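Sequence only, no structure available. Ideas?
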Amino acid sequence: MNARDIMTPMPRTVNARETVEVAIEALRWLDARHLPVVDDDGVLVGMLSDRDLRSLMPPPGLSEDEVEERLRAAQIEPIEAVMNTSPISVEPEADLREVVEPMLEHRVGAIPVVDGDLHPIGIVSYIDILRATYAAR
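Reply:
I predicted one. Tokens follow.
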């Protein structure tokens, strides 16, 4: 079993220069927790997760107006300001161990599958791995 066998093909990506608001809408629409981030050439340059977005939440103790103001400001931030800028990735032929090990080492819930030019062609989440191993029983 390799990455190509279990990946979700053609993942939705966002451009690093798009706003956090665009990423939030994409995550909601997809009901996902991770988005590959690409540059203008479609090359993987980062990953954005719901965990990254939580870092934008205002601290407790602010007034309602202050919270609203900070949330509005966060929505117009570029994705590149909050994304993980050192994405890990695997090739389609990577076996399951080669997918799982970096996910565990880096404590990430999903890993992009890239072609030879680092263009995302799929994504493997921990749910994909669970489904595949359960089905293989």
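The first helix runs from residue 3 to 6.
Hope that gets you unstuck.
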